[in-house]
Design brief:
Length: 362
C-alpha cells in the first residue's frame, strides 16, 4: 500500500468551513485583533489623502428659442419653416458642459493649469472633465452639474461658472443663427423691393381703361398673384435648405415636391385666366404689382422676426439651485476605508490562523 502524500506546500488536500472555524477559534486573539487593526490602519491612511469637496448646481435650460415668434409665424404659410431657430434641448446643454470651448474658458478664468499642476492645457482640460459630472433629468428636464475640487470655495465657483459660460455660449450660437437669417432675408427684401417699385411704376403708367374696369382686375388676378408669391417663397425656402442639406435629404425632397405642386397649380390657373379673359395692359401690370406686394410683405415679416431674434440675448437659463460652498467633504469616505480594511484584516486573520494550525500539526 502507498501512503497518500500531502498537497504541495504542506496544505491539506481538502479545506472546509469546519477547519477554518477551528483555526479561528484556536487563534481567536489573532482573529479578533487583526481585522480591527487593519481597519484602524486604513482609516488612518485616509487622513493622509487630501479631502475632496463636491459642489452642485441645477438649472432648467430653455426649451426652444422660437417660441416668442410662434404667433407671427403661424400666418406666414410656406415661408414659416424658414424661421428654424436653434432648439436648445437638455441633451445639447449636457454636451455643451463637456465642450472644449467651455472648458478652456474655465481653465483661463480659474488658472486651473496651476491648480491641477499641469503643463499642457490638454491635460488640464481632461482633469476638469473628469472632475465634472453633468446629468439630465429625464422626467423634469432639469440639468445638474457637480464639480469636485480640493478647495470647497473653488468647487462652488466653478459649478456656478459653468452656468454663466453656458449662457454665453447659447447666446452666441443663437445670435449667429439669427444673424445668418437676417442677412439672408435682408438681401431677398432688397431684390423684391426693386421689383415692387418697378411694378408700381408700370401700373401707374398703364392708365385705367374702360375695359379694365369692366373686367374687375382685382378679383381676376389677386388669387394668381398670391399663388405666385407662395411659389416664390417656397423656392426661397428650398434655396435656404440646400445651403445646409444635401439634395437627397428628405427635407429637400419634400420641399422640392411642394415647389413642383405650386408650379403646376400656377400654370393651371394662368391658362384658365388666359382662356377666359383678354387681359389689357392695366390688368397685367396690376397682377405683377400685387404679386410683388404680397411677396414683399411675406419676406418683410420674416426679416423683422430675424431682427428681433438677433437683438435677443438667447434663451434664458433658469437656475434652480445655485452651487453653495460644501460644508462636508465627499471624498475620501472613511467608512468605506474601514469596511475594506476590516475585510482585508479578516482575510489576513484566516490565513494566519490556518498557517499556525498547519505549523502546529506538522
Amino acid at each position: 500500500m502507498t501512503t497518500p502524500t500531502p498537497a504541495s506546500g504542506g496544505a491539506p488536500a481538502d479545506l472546509n468551513l469546519t477547519d477554518i472555524v477551528g483555526a479561528l477559534v484556536a487563534n481567536w486573539r489573532v482573529a479578533v485583533a487583526t481585522p480591527f487593526l487593519v481597519a484602524a490602519l486604513a482609516v488612518g491612511l485616509s487622513y493622509l489623502i487630501k479631502p475632496t469637496f463636491t459642489a452642485r448646481t441645477s438649472f432648467l435650460p430653455p426649451q426652444s428659442q422660437q417660441s416668442s415668434a410662434s404667433g407671427a409665424l403661424a400666418s406666414l404659410g410656406a415661408l414659416a419653416g424658414l424661421s428654424g431657430a436653434i432648439r436648445n434641448t437638455g441633451d445639447q446643454y449636457v454636451a455643451f458642459v463637456q465642450s472644449r470651448s467651455v472648458a478652456d474658458r474655465l481653465l483661463d478664468r480659474f488658472d486651473l493649469l496651476k491648480v491641477y499642476d499641469e503643463k499642457l492645457k490638454h491635460d488640464a482640460r481632461i482633469t476638469l472633465v473628469e472632475r465634472t459630472r453633468a446629468s439630465l433629468g429625464k422626467k423634469d428636464g432639469v440639468i445638474s452639474i457637480e464639480v469636485d475640487d480640493h478647495d470647497p470655495q473653488r468647487a462652488a465657483d466653478i459649478a456656478n461658472a459653468y452656468v454663466e459660460e453656458l449662457r454665453k455660449l447659447a447666446a452666441s450660437l443663437t445670435l449667429s443663427e439669427a444673424q445668418q437669417r437676417r442677412e439672408f432675408f435682408e438681401s431677398q427684401l432688397k431684390q423684391v423691393r426693386v421689383k415692387l417699385d418697378a411694378a408700381q411704376a408700370a401700373l401707374q403708367g398703364s392708365g385705367l381703361a374702360g375695359s379694365a374696369i369692366k373686367v374687375e382686375p382685382k378679383a381676376a388676378v389677386e388669387a394668381l398673384a398670391r399663388l405666385r408669391a407662395e411659389l416664390t417663397t417656397a423656392e426661397v425656402r428650398l434655396q435656404a435648405m440646400r445651403r445646409n442639406l444635401a439634395d437627397q435629404a428628405p427635407e429637400v425632397l419634400q420641399q422640392s415636391a411642394v415647389v413642383a405642386a405650386l408650379r403646376g397649380e400656377m400654370d393651371r390657373q394662368a391658362r384658365a385666366e388666359q382662356a377666359g379673359v383678354t387681359q389689357g395692359g392695366y390688368i397685367g401690370a396690376y397682377r405683377e404689382f400685387k404679386y410683388q406686394e404680397t411677396l414683399y410683405d411675406l419676406i418683410a415679416r420674416q426679416y423683422e422676426i430675424a431682427r428681433v431674434d438677433e437683438s435677443r440675448e438667447g434663451g434664458q437659463v433658469q437656475v434652480i439651485d445655485p452651487a453653495l460652498v460644501p460644508e462636508r467633504k465627499s471624498k475620501p469616505k472613511r467608512s468605506i476605508f474601514a469596511i475594506v480594511g476590516f475585510g482585508l484584516g479578516l482575510a489576513a486573520a484566516v490565513a494566519l490562523a490556518l498557517a499556525r494550525r498547519r505549523a502546529s500539526g506538522a
